């Protein structure tokens, strides 16, 4: 049997609780929430499962050594004590990613270089040859994290960031990160039992993530490769068992998932990406200007969208956001409407609706808010007006 070991799942700011819940639902043990990360325990099969299934994880790291460091010489010496030939062949390739948060290590790039030197010298001293550096597609991705005097050396089981799902071949001007999109959908409370509308769908990322949630499809089922597939202990038979067991747990949601965009090119790109994700039967998209639409479906509905920011498109921001509020009031009663924006002054303040929830998130480096407007039906109409 495979033994359990500690792992660390990195995530985006604000998604730690959601990621922890995802991990517990998958069967992780010892789940502990950090800042932009969640630690947990599981075996090799669970590591495969976490990479395949987690929607809000950016990458899954497997720590292999922890030690104290006071200076660069300590780092070099400690790195050399690791038996690197257990993890990489001398003819293989590797890359080092470092994060240093310590007064004695202020340059993360220098930490990466020092680590690389120690690994290269380890092989040169032992066999007279060395593995090469490959920053794009290394056989082994190594992560160094230094906080104060504590150094953790991990190997990255994901390889490329897990936001690279494998379904997106076409994007619009500023596509939303897939992990961010999935986290926003989960934060909205969407679970596939409600209808779902993205009225400014762009290249379709939010719709695709919603459809995968609704049908319990593993988030990274379309990825071509994970980092662990290049490891010497990779078990392809176990990986197939884990993958097939996840696919057996998919379901078919009957609720509607609808996307609008007024741009023909955006609709074309969204259709392409939806086809790549094999989700055509679950998602309907139409070339429509949101401001001229209204809700045409009965039952509980979640509206979630990522409006264009001023820096993305040339728009009159106050007028644009006022029209968002007017359209929701006029055409979308009986919905929970969510939007994410970084424009607080000219944007949010002009929507003209009272927010029911406001959550701090980041879109890349942009400080954003995910806000909800509860749109009542009939006589409760007054409740969603701003005080």
Automatic annotation (TrEMBL):
Q: Which Gene3D superfamilies match?
A: 3.30.2130.30, Vaccinia Virus protein VP39
InterPro entries recorded: RlmKL-like_Mtase, RlmKL-like_Mtase_CS, RlmL_1st, SAM-dependent_MTases_sf, THUMP_dom
Has UniProt tagged this entry with the keyword ATP-binding? no
Pfam families according to UniProt? RlmL_1st, THUMP, UPF0020
Q: Where in the numbering of this chain does the THUMP domain appear?
A: 46-157
- SUPFAM superfamilies hit by this protein: S-adenosyl-L-methionine-dependent methyltransferases (SSF53335), THUMP domain-like (SSF143437)
Keyword Transferase assigned to the entry: answer is yes
Per the record, the GO terms for biological process are: methylation
GO MF assignments: methyltransferase activity
Which keywords accompany this UniProt record? Answer: Methyltransferase, RNA-binding, Transferase
This protein is called Class I SAM-dependent RNA methyltransferase
């Amino acid at each position: 049997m495979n033994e359990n070991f500690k792992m660390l799942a990195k995530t985006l700011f604000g998604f730690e609780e959601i990621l922890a819940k995802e991990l517990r639902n998958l069967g992780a043990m010892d789940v502990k929430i950090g800042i932009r990360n969640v630690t947990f325990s599981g075996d090799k099969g669970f590591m495969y499962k976490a990479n395949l299934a987690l929607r809000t994880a950016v990458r899954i790291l497997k720590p292999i050594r922890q030690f104290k460091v006071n200076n660069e010489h300590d780092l070099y010496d400690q790195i050399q004590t690791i038996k690197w030939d257990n993890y990489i062949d001398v003819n293989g390739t590797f890359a080092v990613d470092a994060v240093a948060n310590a007064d004695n290590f202020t340059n993360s790039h220098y930490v990466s270089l020092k680590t690389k030197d120690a690994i290269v010298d380890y092989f040169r001293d032992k066999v007279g040859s060395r593995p090469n550096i490959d920053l794009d597609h290394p056989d082994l991705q190594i992560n160094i994290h230094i906080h104060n005097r504590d150094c953790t050396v991990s190997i990255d089981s994901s390889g490329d960031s897990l936001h690279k799902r494998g379904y997106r071949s076409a994007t619009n001007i500023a596509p939303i990160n897939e992990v961010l999109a999935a986290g926003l959908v989960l934060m909205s409370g969407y679970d596939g039992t409600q209808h779902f509308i993205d009225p400014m769908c762009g290249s379709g990322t939010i719709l695709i993530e919603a459809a995968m949630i609704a049908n319990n499809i593993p988030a990274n089922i379309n990825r071509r490769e994970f980092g662990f597939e290049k490891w010497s202990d990779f078990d392809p038979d176990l990986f197939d068992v884990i993958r097939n067991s996840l696919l057996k747990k998919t379901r078919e949601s009957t609720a509607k998932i609808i996307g609008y965009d007024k741009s023909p090119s955006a609709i074309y790109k969204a259709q392409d990406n939806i086809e790549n994700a094999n989700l055509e039967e679950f998602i309907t998209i139409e070339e429509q200007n949101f401001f001229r639409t209204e809700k045409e479906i009965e039952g509980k509905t979640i509206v979630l969208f990522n409006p264009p920011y001023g820096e993305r498109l040339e728009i009159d921001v106050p007028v644009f956001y006022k029209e968002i509020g007017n359209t929701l009031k006029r055409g979308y009663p009986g919905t929970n409407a969510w939007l994410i924006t970084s424009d607080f002054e000219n944007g949010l303040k002009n929507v003209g609706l009272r927010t029911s929830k406001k959550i701090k998130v980041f879109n890349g480096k942009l400080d954003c808010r995910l806000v909800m407007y509860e749109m009542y039906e009939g006589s409760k109409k007054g409740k969603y007006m701003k005080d």
